[in-house]
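Journal club prep — side note

Before the paper discussion, L.F. wants everyone to see what a predicted structure for a comparable chain looks like in token form. Sequence:
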Amino acid sequence: MYYVYILLSKKDGKLYIGSSPDLKKRLEKHERGFVLATKNRLPITLIHYESFYSERDARRREIFLKGGKGHDELKIQLQDCFKKFKYKYF
């Protein structure tokens, strides 16, 4: 399985979108500060993930979510989560 995941930084309130074949190990690397993109944004919280059989499908979904239409979709799908964590997405 391959995973696309979304992290929310509690430090700066921004999202990080990534993908990995091993979600648990990847989250541990993020939490320990071994990922350059998030090491200065700790602590982080996993707020969403999706699983895919195909790595290519997961990569396409990751790219889509990082784009404008993908962000718009996230605003609709995760609005309750965003309210809970006080994420300012507008």
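L.F.'s comment for the group: The chain has a mean pLDDT of 92. Keep this in mind when we get to the figures.
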